[in-house]
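QA checklist item 7 of 12: single-chain prediction sanity check.
[x] sequence parsed
[x] length recorded as 664
[x] structure emitted
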Amino acid sequence: MRLSSSVLYLPLFGLLPLVLTGCTMSSNAPATPEQGVAIQGRVMGGQVPLWGAQLYLFQANTTGYAGPGIAGSTSNASKSLLTSAGNTTQDTAPGDATFDDYYVTSASDGSWAITGDYTCTGGAQVYLYSLGGGAGTNSYSNSGAGLLAALGSCPGTAGSTGNTFSSGLFIVINEVSTVATAYAFAGFATDALHVSSSGTTLAKTGIANAFANVTNMETLGTGGGVALTTTASGGTVPQAEINTLADILATCVNTTAPSSSACTNLFTNAQTNGSTGITPSDTATAAINLAHNPGLTAGPLYSFFSLILPTAPFQPTLTSAPNDFTIALNFTAGGIGTPSAIAIDGSGDAWIANNGSTASVTELSPLGVALNSSPFTVGGLQTPSSIAIDLSGNAWIANDGNPGSITGLSSTGTAIGASPFTGGGVNQPGGIAVDGSSRVITGNNDMGMSGDVAVFSNSGTPISQSTGIGVADQGVAVDGLGNIWAINEYVTSVQKVVINQTTGAYVSATNYDPGINDPTGLAIDDNNDVWIATHGSKVVVLNGSGTVISTGSGLFVGGGLQYSQAIAIDGASNAWIANTHFGSPANGDLSEFSQSGQVQSPNAGYTSSTMSSTSPMALAIDGSGDVWVTNNGNSSVTEFIGAGVPVITPLAVGVENNKLGTRP
């Protein structure tokens, strides 16, 4: 394959796979290629068949990173799977981005068939890319018409993750399938020709989960959107928003050329940086760019689309311009009740601490399905306030009662040892974290201004206790060097606690005063800098020596920050903050900042109807780049699909390898 040279992003990270020591970060040996199965379907522009569209079959790469901010190159190019056998044709147009690749062509009714003339790597992720074609009786082929459909894991591999396709599968490729696919794998896609993970075990898990999430947003066999998720009981989907995005793409797909006003409007507002950067040449790459920049150009895109609203091919649609074009699913399964905290394990499962009338923990799959008969109520859970995952996949929960305790749950939800564990200084623990040796750290608050940090073994045995610092809320984190950071909400300070990395014994503690009010949470990026969210609608960043490094007044503001509750870092070291708004309307939102402090979210933050009138208390980012938020006010969890950059999970693996805030 010869690749287009028009993609000129500045990479955030190197394109070579990570070579890390942690067992969950290792790369797998190449799998044996599997003989492909026959598949067929139709390609549609809106509700009209596309004739003459060229359909390429691609396998996601596993030799280098692709995704937002990373340039397309030979090291992260998707692998073309079709061969010269059977009914395929070779692209022979020099200079074309797909030059030398084989494809099948859609007939006058949009139908196409692939007879199995390909092999794919067992467990690898496969997708279809349709390019060009004419709508209905249109005599012109629109080279700007690009469409996607995610098929999932290569067939024939027992136990593979994803919507594995089988022989005879019928697939409709249209604008709805394109939106669902683009958003689901956005964290691994630079454009339609460059979809790639690093090849580590965690990365391949993340991309498999991303492809599988497409089934929660559309029906592969019909190309139709869904109002309820197809996998999770009680899961809801913003169907009108997905349809609106699909309709915006259709205004371009159903025209004669990419120079049409519909295509020009779309491509201008769907560049690599929103309204700036590299302009896409087809609607599939435009959809990926929209997923990367959901808050930058929603208004202008909707304004143009609203002119054709009565005749839009996909219904229902939004009836007014959205604040942003994030796609957020909502889940209530597994007994979620007044959720206070969330953490992601190495499989991409979300663990939620429920602080409701019945203290419990919920485990959801990456698709929002309740696992292991959760909710779990064992192990002495009482007013759970925070949760963390260790290297073995066990969950540790801080029980913020009086005097309080910690609970350990196995990866299947059974109590560890003699849970709940007390002693060792545990006293109303508000925050909990796990270090690279699976030691459990709690931040304790006795409301008497003399709280401390306590360290436990992964069997619940007390190891050490720091001096009193008055820790509260969820403000405990471990950096990549093993240092513990804790916030003191009552005297607005931050403390760095050093422990012996071999024994876990307490060594020293240093207090820093960055000049902030009401700190509520903190997280660590790939430089081991400490990001602190505050109720004062500001974010401050400290380096490892406790010096404020954020710009201007020393504080980042804007992007929807208001009464911030929690903070998390994604795989590009972007900071995500959950905010609660008071007044009318009382809408929660998410803020996003780049590592340099540049606001990425719109003025009102990223919003979702499922967060309206609720209290987003905590958030976490998974290995697919999805941002998960707990809604304390309506006992649900919202998943913003592909909004972030895939990150190493659980956080303890990032600590173990000094790779916090990086891609898996």
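[x] summary fact logged: Residues 210 and 548 are 36 Å apart (CA to CA).
[ ] second reviewer sign-off
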